[in-house]
Amino acid sequence: MSYNKYYQLDPSHGILTKVGEYLPISQYMSSDSQKIVGGVLVGTGVWVSIIMVMRNVLKGLLSWHGWMSQRHGSVSYATRLWMILVKIFSGRKPMLYSFQNSLPRLPVPSVKDTCRRYLESVRPLMDDEQFERMKGLAKDFEKNLGPRVQWYLKLKSWWASNYVSDWWEEYIYLRGRSPIMVNSNYYAMDFLYVFPTSIQAARAGNAIHAIMLYRRQLDRAQIKPLMLLHTIPMCSSQYERMFNTSRVPGVDTDSLVHVNETKHIVVYHKGRFYKVWMFYDGRLLLPREIEQQMERILADTSEPSPGEEKLAALTAGDRTPWANARESYFSRGKNKQSLDAIEKAAFFVTLDETEQQFDEKNPVTSLDSYAKCLLHGKCYDRWFDKSFNLIVFKNGTMGLNAEHSWADAPIIGHLWEHVLSMDPCKLGYTEEGHCKGEPHNNMPGPQRLQWDIPTECQEVIESSLTVAKNLANDVDCHIIPFSTFGKGLIKKCRTSPDAFIQIALQLAHYRDKGKFCLTYEASMTRLFREGRTETVRSCTMETCAFVRSMIGDETREERLKLLKAAAEKHQNMYRLAMTGDGIDRHLFCLYVVSKYLGEDSPFLKEVLSEPWRLSTSQTPLQQVELFDLIKHPEYVSSGGGFGPVADDGYGVSYIILGENLINFHISSKHSSPETDSHRFGGHIKQAMMDILDLFQLEKKDTKP
Q: Which residues catalyse the reaction (predicted)?
């Protein structure tokens, strides 16, 4: 300003002079003041303009997805230049939400392309007559109703951040009236081989402290945004509701309630609920202090009040009875206060009375029991409506149970990776197995939540528990730590590990049931703003041709050729799903629009009613740098899993760990005569080995 004053310069470049012709600025400001204000205004304008230009340039750059078609290990000069530009416009140290306004919107595919790809996906599942009929329905939709509902969908895509996500959350999750336990909630497991401590309170102390540290980083947006190839950002919006969130039941539809900040958690043990403050003297409790609070809960010998022990069964049963009970018995007095404490808590903790862990002497039974316990427990010792439950078992093993509507599994997986990396290595334990540090002498203890549950409500609780137990008892869980080989050998086959596993699942399913089925593989659309998931229909014509060749008497060379075609097809479909050209979310939204318009579409109705008899998902290891599996191969997670989507189908989750381990989590229902999780597991192991044998890697390695 001194420089401008000395040389009689006007930093506003005459703007204030021009404004002064119409407004009496000189009456209120001296010429020096006008120059100062002008300089501030121009500087701010330039700064805002630079930010807007950078943001829009970055959005334009991120709208290009040609990098996905590059072969692994060979990147073109154009793609390298593009990546350099993305890094330049991303800034030096981006924070968690830095890219939210720069991410492109999810595009709406054309009706013609979606119908064509849909017909292609169902061709291997239909005979000629069925296919011709479906072809006619698709053609009629494409010609008549399709363009009209597409127009409304395009209109929505122009003003909504994401044309899918809000409807997906509402209609797929929140409007469901069946139990969310097993049907929607999923679980995550502890380390497979490492048991840091056998003291329940100590394990809870370190885990809770690590989770609260993560929440503090999240509140300050200090968590690094997830970036593919360390360059391409992914949407972070799902992180916003990780903590202090609960699903609240409604008669017709549920809702998600999120509060900005709470300073407590709620702990369940032996039928009692406790409110535990996480802060004292303005600071976060240390691990040993949290352990102390858990010890106090474990030492409490008081009995649950009438109806309290099985109260959480309301969250495990059908949604409408829970909604009616909530309105009738939990809308006033001490019940409302206690329910508020649970729903507003940062998260929910269960100090489980059972012991669960991998037992080398009895690996199958121990892991199957562990999975079932995390998925549903006793049906009344988890608060299934909370965003997530931390479950700590009596012997110190732990895990998570997460509600699905607020976010998808990779989000909770990111938190869980942080907790597992912090717990034994950074926080650690004493030789006796306690948390490091000293207990606090004057800290107030946990606060027992009070309930007054009438007999009528207890009857509703018992009714919900009966529904939940019938569902839980029907679940057949099986976990396979597949260590015969891993992605190390699969890469030597020059095949995508995910494509390899998906094709193996198709081969295993055909051997298991003697037929192909509609297959769901979850893919993410987080390259777009507020993106969630898309479906990869991994049962393709190419995959079916390969599977038939494995059943028939084709030569090894023919099978390898068909395998390569199937893998390339799968990779291409995965790319299409990630870049907004998948078909299932588009078809779903077209169906929603048709219902809003009161139009009945036989094509869409039939498409949306087809059951997914094989539902699959890969659990990605997102923060590889946190785990040195070369030096410490024992620090591998067991991954996580979910319940079967169809009554006569399988749910399969898998996690690729290091170079030599793939964990499979299989679920089905005992009530179906067509399924058996253990039988299917045997077929998966055999299919994996049979496909690997085609490459004859042993012969290649022994060549001189």
A: 404
CA dihedral in degrees (582, 406, 241, 577; nearest 10)? -10
> Could you tell me which of 573, 618, 571, 524 has the C-alpha nearest to residue 106?
524
- Separation of alpha carbons 90 and 55, rounded Å: 9
Give the N- to C-terminal CA distance of the chain in Å, as an integer: 78
Q: Tell me which residues of the chain have a pLDDT lower than 50.
A: 1, 3, 6-7, 23, 702-704
**Contact (CB, 8 A) for 293 and 280:** no
**DSSP letter at 422?**
I
Task: Please tell me the pTM assigned to this model.
Answer: 0.91
Per-residue pLDDT, 702? 47
The string of pLDDT tens digits covering residues 266-295 is 999 999 999 999 999 999 999 999 999 999
Residues 215 and 396 sit within 8 Å (Cβ to Cβ)? no
Q: Measure Cα distances from 156 to 100, 174, 349 in Å.
A: 19, 21, 40
User: Is residue 502 within 8 Å of 570, Cβ to Cβ?
Assistant: yes
Let me know: does 442 contact 292? Beta carbons within 8 Å.
Answer: no
Amino acid at 210: A
How many beta carbons lie within 10 A of that of residue 9, not counting itself?
13
Which residues does the annotation mark as catalytic? 404
Strand-pair category, 519-524 with 614-618: parallel
Give the C-alpha separation, 664 to 641, whole Å. Answer: 8
Q: What share of the chain is helix, strand, coil (3-state, %, to 5)?
A: 50, 15, 40
Structure tokens at 491: 């890469």
Per-residue H/E/C for 172-239: HHHCCCCCCCCCCCEEEECECCCCCCCCHHHHHHHHHHHHHHHHHHHHCCCCCCCEECCCEECCCHHH
The domains located in the chain, with CATH, are 2-65+74-90 (no CATH), 111-170+476-701 (3.30.559.10), 183-475 (3.30.559.70)
pLDDT value of position 518: 97
Distance CA 699, CA 701 (A): 5
Q: What is the pLDDT of residue 31?
A: 62
For 519, phi then psi, to 5°, come to -120, 135
pLDDT at 33: 64
Distances (CA, A) of 318 to 177, 250, 325, 464: 6, 11, 11, 7
| DSSP letters for 498-524 | HHHHHHHHHHHHHHHHSS---EEEEEE
Determine contact, residues 84/223, Cβ cutoff 8 Å. no
Sequence length of the chain is 704
Distance from C-alpha of 127 to C-alpha of 511, rounded to nearest angstrom: 20
Six token digits for residue 464: 């919900």
Q: How far apart are CA 504 and CA 502, in angstroms?
A: 5
